[in-house]
Amino acid sequence: MAPASEDALTKVSTDAATEFVQSFYPALQSNRGTISTFYNQTISMILFNGNVVADGKAVQEIFVNQMPPAHYEVQSFDCQIINQAYPTPTATGLKAPNETTLKDKSILVLVSGYVRFGESRDLPQRGFSETFVLVPNPSADGPKGKRKREWLIESQTFRLVV
Amino acid sequence: MKGGKGSRGRSGGSDRGGIRKKGAAKRVDRDGDLAMDAGSTQGRVKKARGDSSRSVATGPRAHTRDRTLDAIQKAISSNTNSQANVRQGGRGSNLEQVSVRGWKQSKAASNRDGGVESLITFLEKKLNSSDSKAGSRARITKSRVEGDAFIVSIRSELLDRMLKMNGFSFAGAPLTIQTYDPSANGMDQTMLSEVSRNSGAPSTADTKSKMTAILSKRYFQQQKLLNLSKLGSDPDLLAMGIFDSTSTESKFFPALMKVWEMNFDNSTARREAVESVSLADNQLANITVVTTLAQSFPDLKNLDLSNNNFKDSQSLIGWRWKFRNLEFLDLTGTPFSADPTFKDTMLKWYPKLRYLNNTEVRTAEEVAAQKKTPIPVQAPHFQDESQIGENFVKAFFVGYDNNRTDLLNGVYDNNSTFSLNVNTTAPRAQQTETAAWDPYIKKSRNLLKINHLPARMSRSFVGAEKIREMWSSLPQTRHPDIGAHPEEWLIECFPIPGLPDPSGQSPTGVGGLLIMVHGKFEEINGPKVDLRSFDRTFILGPGGGMGGIRVINDILCLRAHGGHEAWMLEQPVVQATQPGQPPIQPPAAPPATSDGYGMPAPGKPDAQVQQEQLVMQISAKTGMTLPYSEMALSGNGWNLDAALKNFEELKAQGQLPPDAFLPGAV
Fold first, then answer.
1. How close A31 gets to chain B, by Cα (Å)?
2. For residue B50, what pLDDT is reported?
3. Which residue has the higher pLDDT, B483 or A122?
4. Disulfide check for B655: which of B245, B273, B508, B650 has CB 3.0–4.6 Å away?
5. Confidence of residue A107 (pLDDT cuts 50, 70, 90)
6. Which domain covers residue A128, as residue numbers?
7. Are the CB atoms for B242 and B192 separated by under 8 Å?
8. Is residue B288 part of a domain?
9. A151: closest CA of chain B, how far (Å)
10. d(CA B256, CA B271)
11. Tell me, what CATH number does B632's domain have?
């Protein structure tokens, strides 16, 4: 593959981050049954306020069973490409160089916003900062024929900061 | 979260950005403008707060102000950080003031800023939409909150249009818009001189010293109590003629608050001096006259408002978002106390309230539970086997503060990426004033606001050279020392795989570190130092830099100062020392002190001030008069403990005459 233009790189990464942020936080809020679908099979680390969570399934479990209703508001976010030639795994090992596409990238996303735990608008707004590493979804299809998520969480660090 | 343009009613920026864009001939980076606008709105509101000294002095009075008053005003301005405003918005500028009421009943009132920012956006939008052909955009030049009124300054030619907006509906509530009448509110800059004129005092300085004397009689340092109860029957105030005219009466309290503030060198000392205020027995029907109390004592813990005429929550509405640390509130003897919604409303207004009308309404545990999150706060996760992350972070922030070029030469290479984004609306620590974001906003790559590809590209900086150029345009910073102030930092770190291999040898990529840093820094803009918070994430990989590493990614988020409370580990709740006991218990009779006793004054030696303060402490502790308290101290080498011990002995032996004690103290 010819080296991608700066335009194309910026477009693919910022589109990925935007699409992710605009679907992940609404899911935490009102579609918690889908949370695990945002996560990669292999995970480097998932941290919530310093608590280690094993994988996407465990995150979903916590949000479904233990978390009160929460309102998330993303106020600012940005992203950068980490690896322009991310080694996306396939069923047959690594992709050959001629099989890679513009989307074989890993992306760093930094989000800043607030969360309100509980339903009342009078509850305090807690500022959070959250860092994600997104990687391409290696599987060919989405769950049960649904459109597959193109980018998955490889690592996640959430912290309340205010 | 909301879509691309930022949420309406919060920054509200999109509308105004749109309006501006119409008039702009050349292509404007819309998103940058938006963000800048939101920033400047904040700046405006911020400046307005606490800046009561800005209204315009008119008429001949302005010319007769003496030097003393100028000095007083200077002191006031420097206290409230509003000097620039006072100068800019001075006399002769062609501005009209208009009061807007009714917004506190709107849905926007539950916004974090009380709806002020949305209100400004709304008003500006309406001002503009009624005359789209106007050459220059209608703006609200200045604004401030006074009780339930929002006072805005606009160019005089906009006045008619503004007044026609009376009755417009803002977020579900009709607005009342009227020309502002400063005499109705007692916030006039010249209030001190007016108080002195009306009360027949020879000069402003005289009024000031009389007020200082009254304050020192009513201030109990030991209890951190300012007792402003029964002001109407205070012989000194009556002698000053304060209550002889309604205009003086309304100006008296704000003036008293200013005088109080002027007696302190800095705001920290001022804030720490008082935890409790009593305004009991003042026949107040609402807080209009005393509303400035909230500006002078924002951190108040105990507030006694008993035996006043507050009828309902509306009569207190101006303090709805004030006193965020209030624990004790006494409204006994007010009609509002009988209202069925009374308790619920007060609990809702004051999240830390524990005692209402001397009854416990929340336990310490319940207060603490509000702060608890469903995700327990744990110590940072720091997984860094060979201390690469630790060494990097320690060196990074020292380098960033002192020598950015060396830092770039050391660990950044041609593929390192840096970008920053500003969260202009982030929650912030209490009482934080946020400096304007001007130095950053044109480089901010907040993807919520920066939607166009060229802007997204130009706000990302790849390669040490480009990053150097970028960093050299950013303000100087000073981060706290990590070793000396570890609590102000939260740093997490763990290894990640799949990073680019600079040697190109490993098709599966190489391993490195992901480092997340949260903290604060001081920003040095000439003589001005601003405090900001930041979140900064780095990805480090193996490379040719110092220590065999390189920075692959450096992504920075800036936001208003938010403190470090959020990541402090949850502590077991400490039981209050005296549960149920009202903390506001002024001594039966305040000791009769002479003017300025215990307070610093020009020409008064520090030693004397300290001695007087000791005397007041002994007096407060023992109930003895000041002369006897002084005797106890001077007879014991001015040692407080020795004097107290001596007092206990003499008292036990019955050797103290009745006239050693203040009336009502025994």
1. 14
2. 38
3. B483
4. B650
5. very high
6. 4-158
7. no
8. yes
9. 15
10. 16
11. 1.10.8.10
Q: Which of B378, B379, B448 is nearest residue A76 as measured by Cβ atoms?
A: B448
pLDDT at B200: 54
Burial of B127 (0-12, 13-18, 19+ CB in 10 A): buried
Considering its fold, how many domains does chain A have in total? 1
- Out of B313, B338, B369, a domain closes at B369
- Structural domain includes residue B325: yes
Q: Are residues B457 and B365 in the same domain?
A: no
For B172-221, the pLDDT digits (tens) are 888 989 887 654 443 333 556 666 665 555 567 788 888 899 999 999 98
For residue B80, what pLDDT band results from cuts at 50, 70 and 90?
A: very low
CB contact (8 A) between residue B557 and residue A76: yes
Q: What is the pTM of this model?
A: 0.58
> B504: domain CATH number?
3.10.450.50
How high is the pLDDT of residue A52? 96
Residue B516 pairs with which residues in a beta bridge?
B492, B537
CB A21 within 8 A of CB B1: yes
Distance from CA of B514 to the nearest CA of A (A): 9
> Nearest to residue B250, comparing CAs of B207, B290, B199, B212?
B290
Task: Indicate the number of domains in chain B.
Answer: 4
Question: Closest approach of chain A CAs to the CA of B370, in angstroms?
Answer: 8
Residues B227 and B354 in one domain: yes
User: What 3-state class would DSSP assign to A64?
Assistant: helix
Q: DSSP assignment of B357-387, as one string?
A: TTEE-S-HHHHHHHH--SS------B--TTS
Residues 170-199 of B with CB under 8 A from A: none
Range of the domain at B632: 604-658
Closest-CA distance of chain A to residue B553, Å:
7
From B380's Cα to the closest Cα of chain A, the distance in A is 5
User: Which of B444, B457, B533 comes nearest A7 by C-beta?
Assistant: B457
* Partners of residue B320 in chain A, C-beta under 8 Å: none
Domain boundary among the residues B509, B536, B564 is at B564
Is the ipTM higher than 0.90? The answer is yes
Question: Do A155 and B494 make contact, defined as CB atoms within 8 angstroms?
Answer: yes
Interface test with B, best of A23, A72, A131, A135 (most B CBs within 10 A): A131
**Cα(B223)–Cα(B583) distance, integer angstroms:** 9
> Which residues contact residue B139 at a Cβ distance below 8 angstroms, ignoring those fewer than 6 apart?
B124, B154, B155
What CATH code is carried by the domain that includes residue B220? 3.80.10.10
pLDDT of amino acid B202: 58
More confident residue, B406 or B252: B406
CB pairs under 8 A between A and B: 201
Is the per-residue pLDDT at B2 higher than 90? no
Residue B37 lies in a domain: no
A121 vs B contacts (CB less than 8 Å): 110
The verdict on B7 touching A (C-beta cutoff 8 Å) is yes
> What CATH number should be reported for the domain holding residue B146?
3.30.70.330
Spatial contact of A76 and B446, defined as CB atoms under 8 Å apart: yes
CA–CA distance from B271 to each of B300, B321, B560 (Å)? 8, 18, 21
The CATH number assigned to the domain holding A24 equals 3.10.450.50
pLDDT recorded at residue B189: 38
Do B415 and B550 have their domain in common? yes
Contact (CB<8Å) B448/A75:
yes
Chain B residues whose CB is inside 8 A of the A88 CB are none
* B446 with A76: Cβ contact below 8 A: yes
Residues B439, B474 contacting (CB under 8 angstroms): yes
Contact B375 A51 (CB under 8 A): yes
Q: Would you place residue B410 in the very low, low, confident or very high pLDDT band (cuts 50, 70, 90)? A: very high
- Report if residue B390 sits inside a domain: yes
- Joined together, the tokens standing for residue A96 give 């050959």
| B423 lies in the same domain as B545 | yes
